[in-house]
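Page 42, continued from yesterday. The earlier attempt failed because a stray header line got pasted into the input along with the sequence. Redoing it now with the clean sequence only.
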Amino acid sequence: MSGEKAKTPTEKFELTVESKLESLPKIGEFLDRTMQHLKIQSSKDIYAVQLSVDEACTNIINHAYADKSEGKIAICCMLMGEKFVIDIMDWGKPFDPTTKPEPDIESGLDERKVGGLGIFFIRKYMDEVSYSRSDCMNLLTIVKYIQK
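This time it went through. Structure tokens are written below.
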């Protein structure tokens, strides 16, 4: 895409919640409202985004803040051209999901280790996945190319 100007988002949608499993429905509702407002209508795209954000936030809740009683998750969504960009931020333990090896999905269910499929689903359903950490903040950016 060299030579193309970077698209500027027209609007940003932000939500900050407590890092608790009880926050997941609120996150889902936020995503529904945001995608509806942005006129994202493809059921495949909506499902991919909902599943991926739910998996990422569940990982943060269960692992980033596992030894703390309090923590926050911040989500920022924007549409940049045909890219729906979701930034998911937390201030818990560092963890780069992009370095996690692919799970063994060929083995039978009774032979597989429990868990580990969340990151697999994020990679499968999203078009771009990146991670960075700075100033004690984890930033997971996931992007879905929106079908028109």
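Notes: DSSP finds three helices and five strands in the chain.
Reminder to self: strip header lines before submitting.
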